[in-house]
Amino acid sequence: MGDQKLDLEISRFVAAPRARVWKAWTDPDILKEWWCPRPWKTEVRAFDFHPGGAFHTFMSGPDGGESDNPGCFLDITPQERIIFTSMLVGGWRPASPWLAFTAILTMADEGPGTRYVARVMHKDDAERRRHEELGFYDGWGACITQLEDVARNIS
């Protein structure tokens, strides 16, 4: 799958069944509850969940900070994998994002829970370092913890 030194990855055990993790990821009303580290909030502006469909979130922080994140779903394997990118928007239209990446999220059964792996691929080392310096591990890690909390409490 290319040059893995350009990737950032988090692999975590999530103490919730895979079906609940999948639901937390694929229901935009639930997604907005965990998608960005609290106390920031997420608005889901588009969630057209199919390859080529728009995936657009807008985050706002308590200090007035904002992060606009339009993107596009590339591939979906139900209950197993979601791939999306910031380099396209809905309908496969090219974009010029503030941070260019493609994310591959996988979910697999692991005992009573789920092995959740988020791998984020970058076009070059500068972009990978920039994403890491912006707090990739802390931010995405906090979101996975929030995902776990939400997934454990949905039916």
UniProtKB/TrEMBL annotation:
Activator of Hsp90 ATPase homologue 1/2-like C-terminal domain residues: 16-150
Pfam family for this entry, one: AHSA1
Gene3D superfamilies, alphabetized: 3.30.530.20
Positions in coiled-coil regions: none
InterPro entries for this protein: ASHA1/2-like_C, START-like_dom_sf
Homology family: Belongs to the AHA1 family.
Protein name: Polyketide cyclase
